[in-house]
C-alpha cells in the first residue's frame, strides 16, 4: 500500500491555489464582502455597508437606505454613458419624426425602406445623420475610417450620377479620375456657385469638355481652384490631401492652383482672375484668411484693371464677342459682390472701387433650373439673373456701409443717423425685390443666401451703434436690439429651412459667417424664449459645419469662449452642444492651425474709437491663443479637482472597510 502510493505522480501546487491549512473550514462563518460604495446612512454611522438597497444594517436599524452616485466615480461614469445613450436614442426619435413629418418626397422613403429591411438602429442613424459619414470617419483610426468610408461610399457612389460630365485631363495633375472630377464640378455648381457666382457656368463647362488648354473660359488654374473649393462639399476620401487628416480637405488642389498661379507671373487673364476668387475662398475656409486677404487685395487690383480695359479685352477676343462680354460682366458682378461681404465680416476697409455695371436681363429662361445634386429630386427655378442683380444692388449698400465704418475716413464713433439711413435703404432694397426671389421658403441656395446677407448687414452695422448708447437712451437701445435679434432669428429661420430641405453638409460657406454674427447678436438677449430657441437652432447648424470646416470650428470655439468669458446663461441644449463640441472636436492643437483675421464681434464693437489696434486685439487667432489657453487651464484644474475628489472618496471607503474588517477580526 505504502509502496504503491510512493510511486504515485505528485501534481505540483499552483501558485494561486490555497494550501490545505489555508482552506476555510466548512463550519467557519463566511465573511460578507463590503459594498464598493457605502450608502449614506452607513457613512453617517461609520458602519460597514454590505450593499443592496436596503442594505442589511439599514434594514435592521429601520433607516432610509440611499446610494449617492455623485460620490462614486465609477458609477458616475456608467451613469453618464447611460444618459448619453438615452440622449442619442431621443435624438434619433426626433429625427425620425421630423423626417416623416416634413420630408416625405426625399428622405422618408429611404428611412422606411431601411426600417422594413430590418436595418440596425446604427444604420438608420447613419442614414439620417447627413454629417455622420464624414464626421465619424474623421474621428476614427485610419484603418477603421477606410473600412467605414468604403461601406457607405459604395452605397452612395452607386447612385451618384453627376450633373456635369467633364474630363480630368488635361486640367489637373492631382487626379486622372474623370468621375471624381465630374462629381466635384457638379457639387461646386450646385452649392457654391449660386451663392458666389463669378464664373459663367455654361461657357466654362463647354471649354472644359473641349480639352483645349488654349480655351478662353477654362484653364488648369481655374479648374484646380474650383476642385479645391468643391472638396469641402464632398464625402469622397479623395477629397482629402491626407485621408488621415480631417483638416486637409482640398489642400492638394489648392496647392496645385497656387503653384500654377505663381507660374503665371502676374499675367492678367479672365480665368486667372476667377481662380483668385476660389483660392481666396479655400484659404478662408481652411482658417487662413490672413492669406486669403492677400488674394482679396490682388482681386481688387485685377478687377480695377479689367474695368479699365474691359472694352480692349472684348475687342481682342477671337470668337464670339458677346460670350466674352457676358463672362467678364459675370466676373465683375460676382467679385464686387464678394468684397463687401468679406470686408464687413472681417471689419476691413473696402478695397474695390464701386463699379458702374449694367444689369443682367431678368428673362426667366426655362432652362434656368437648379437641381440639388447629388439628391435625386425635382428641379427648382434658379432665377440666376434676378439673384445676380439683387446681390449687386445689396452689395452697393454694403460697400458704402463698410467704407463708412472701416474706411480711411471712419468716424471716432458711428453716427446713429447715418446708420439709420443705411437701414432705410436696406429695407427699401428688401421691399423692392422681384416676386420670384422675395420668398425664403422652398427657395434655391442663391435666394436663401441673398436674404441672410441682408440680415447679416443689419446685424453688423447696428452692432457698432449699441456700445455708444448710454442709460438715457434705453428706449433707442431696446429698439436697435430688437432689430438685431429679429434679423438674427431670421437667419436662424433660413438655416433651418435649408436643413429641412437638404443635408447640412451642403450648406454654402457664407452660412457659417451669418450664423456666427447671429449667435453673437443673440448672446446678450437670451432671457427671451424665442431667442433661446433660435440660438440653439443656429448653434446646431454651426456645430455641424465645424465637423467639416476649420474656420467654422474656430468660430464655434470663439462663441463658446465668449459665452464663458461673459458668464452668459445659455440654454441647456446649447450648453450640451458646446460641451460635446469641446470634448469631441476641439483640441489644443486646433488653434495652431489658424491664421485668421476674423474678429470676435462681441469684443470688436466695444472699441468706440475704432482704432486698428483694437481691431487687431479682437482677431480670431489672437483671441483663441489667449482665451483658449485660459479655458484649457481652467478645464485641466477642474479635472484635477474632480479626480482628486474621487480618489479621496475611494480612499475613505477603503479605509472604512479596512477598519471594519480589522474590528470584526478582533471580535472573532
Structure, briefly:
The chain is built from 27 helices and two strands. With 668 residues, it is an all-alpha fold. It starts with a helix and ends with a helix.
Question: Would you kindly provide a written description of the structure presented here, covering whatever features stand out?
Answer:
By secondary structure, the chain is mainly α. Among the domains are: 130-159, no CATH class; 162-349, no CATH class. Helices cover 62% and strands 1% of the residues. It has a two-stranded antiparallel ribbon. The longest helix has 48 residues, at 620-667. The radius of gyration is 32 Å and the shape is globular. The model is unreliable at 1-12, 14-24, 26-32, 130-154, 607-616 and 636-640 (pLDDT under 50). One of its GO terms (biological process) is DNA-templated transcription. This is Zn(2)-C6 fungal-type domain-containing protein.
